[in-house]
Amino acid sequence: MTDIRRELSATEVQDFKSRAIELAAEARRIIKTALASGFDVKRKPDGSFVTSVDLRVEERLRELIRTRFPAHGVIGEERPPSNPGADFQWIIDPVDGTEDLVHRVPVFGTIIGLHYHGQPIVGVIDIPMLDICVSGAFGLGAFQNNERILLGDLPSALPGEGARIMLGARANFTRYGDDGRLFDAVTRAYPNHRIYRSCYAHACAVTGAADATVDYGNRIWDLAASRILVEEAGGKYVVIQDADIPGTGRVYGAVFGKPALVDRLAALLRRLKAGETAE
Predict the structure, then answer these.
(1) Positions at the binding site
(2) Cβ 205 vs Cβ 144: under 8 Å
(3) Rounded to two decimals, what is the model's pTM?
(4) What's the pLDDT tens digit per position in 25-67?
(5) For the residues of the chain, what is the DSSP string, one character each?
(6) Which residues are annotated as a binding site for Mg(2+)?
(7) Of the CATH numbers 3.40.50.12780, 2.10.109.10, 3.40.190.80, 3.40.50.150, which one belongs to the domain with range 160-273?
(8) Where are the domains of the chain?
(9) pLDDT value at residue 279
(10) Phi and psi (nearest 5°) for 64?
(11) Res 122 pLDDT > 90
């Protein structure tokens, strides 16, 4: 099957990537200004945090996209979708890791993805307090700041304790159902793991700072940039959850990073989801 993204020229894709990086820079400016001057914090009905920073970033990015690409759609965490039938959809998480922002843990950031007919063509993850901007585009590679990322791989027989794994919190696995056993199995099989509930874990898998990331129970804006980034870096991305949750919408999980390890993790999780044991 022909990849529909090949309909787009490299020049078009590069322009979209440049615009996405500009959006991320604007988000960073707003976030850093708010950290210096202060911001409001509230709770959503589900108990999660939302701040005036989240709202301001999304409002500003929507405004810039609407001005530059009026025919494009926008999906964001804090506002209803606009132009949902458009071929091009900008997908935004204005502050991924809002709880970390509230508590000044510097691993929060902004996620920006551009999808064409449902396929990712541009991704940016910007983590302002660590000065990390990971960007990539279809056919154009992936970069950390201005340095090209080229992921290696791990030996397929590497013991579990030799791999560096990042995961979301166990709460991610139990938020929409009791899949805590998946978290438990991964952490037992790969004891050299770290827990981050933010886009920092995704950026680490893309750059090779971690060998793979397992994330679960996410909305589309949480994963909007990760597939294109890791694939353009030379890694692999495998979907392990795609479920329609009543009252919530579609929820996703994925494993991504160095290919051999991703295959092992995905196989483990699929066995567990099929009701088999981890062994």
Answers:
(1) 77, 93, 96, 222
(2) no
(3) 0.96
(4) 999 999 999 999 999 999 988 888 999 999 999 999 999 999 9
(5) ---GGGGS-HHHHHHHHHHHHHHHHHHHHHHHHHHHH---EEE-TTS-EEEHHHHHHHHHHHHHHHHH-TTSEEEESSS--BSTT-SEEEEEEEEETHHHHHTT-TT-EEEEEEEETTEEEEEEEEEGGGTEEEEEETTTEEEETTEE-------TT--GGGS-EEE--HHHHHSSS--HHHHHHHHHH--SEEE-SSHHHHHHHHHTSSSEEEEEEE-GGGSTTHHHHHHHTT-EEEEEEEEEETTTEEEEEEEEESHHHHHHHHHHHHHHHTT----
(6) 77, 93, 96, 222
(7) 3.40.190.80
(8) 4-148, 160-273
(9) 60
(10) -65, -40
(11) yes
Question: pLDDT digit string (tens) for 130-152?
Answer: 999 999 999 999 999 989 999 99
Give the pLDDT confidence score for residue 223 in this predicted structure: 97
Q: What is the mean pLDDT of residues 196-205?
A: 93
pLDDT of residue 46: 83
Class of domain 4-148: alpha beta
